[in-house]
Amino acid sequence: MQIVIGFMKSIFSMKAPWPLWVVTLMALNMMGPLFFIHTLEAKAVLVSTLAGGVLMMFLFGRYGFVRLLGLGHFFWIPLVIWLGTRIPETGLSTPFGFWLALVLVANIISLVIDVLDVSLYIRGDRKPMVAN
Length: 132
Fold this sequence. Notes:
Blueprint: H1 2-13, H2 18-35, H3 40-63, H4 76-90, H5 95-122
Helix pairs in contact: 2-3, 2-5, 3-4, 4-5
């Protein structure tokens, strides 16, 4: 539990707009699925997000709040590919379709940021993203 608390403190220590971005991702990927949990898509979003959270907690516990944490969204890669195929079928005219599109767009943006972060880490930028 201490790792989760430390992780959340680090997130809220980041400069704006990053804490708002993380809260938005969490709302879309952890709370949003609960409204549509009867669907396979919502279950997939929730499971991939929780799996990513477990990986992030492991990485945070081992390396701290560094750019490598972007690997936690690795599980979103197959998810966004699959969700992209679901949008034409679900459409955007229902709350479910609108939520699905928001998840898809937000997660793709996040994955782009994650690729940049992880590549910076691999190239040597290993300093913490916030002061401890």
